[in-house]
Amino acid sequence: MNKKIVLKKTPIGIPKESDFKLVESPLPELRKNEVLTKTIHLSLDPYIRGVITGKHIYAEKVNIGDTIVGRTIAKVIDSKNSDIQVGEIIMCSNGWQEYGVSDGEGIRKIDPSSAPLSTNLGILGMPGLTAYAGLLVYGEPKKDDVVVVSAASGPVGCMVGQIAQIHGAKAIGIAGSEEKCNVVKEKFGFAECINYKTENLSERIKEVCPNGLDIYYDNVGGETLDIMTKNLAMFARIVLCGFMTQYNLATPPPGPNLGPIVGSRASIKGVVVYDHYDKQQEFITLASQWLKEGKINYIEDEVFGIENTPMHFCSLMRGENFGKTIITIN
Ligand SMILES: NC(=O)c1ccc[n+]([C@@H]2O[C@H](COP(=O)([O-])OP(=O)(O)OC[C@H]3O[C@@H](n4cnc5c(N)ncnc54)[C@H](OP(=O)(O)O)[C@@H]3O)[C@@H](O)[C@H]2O)c1
Question: Does the domain spanning 2-122+299-328 belong to CATH 3.40.50.720?
Answer without folding.
Answer: no
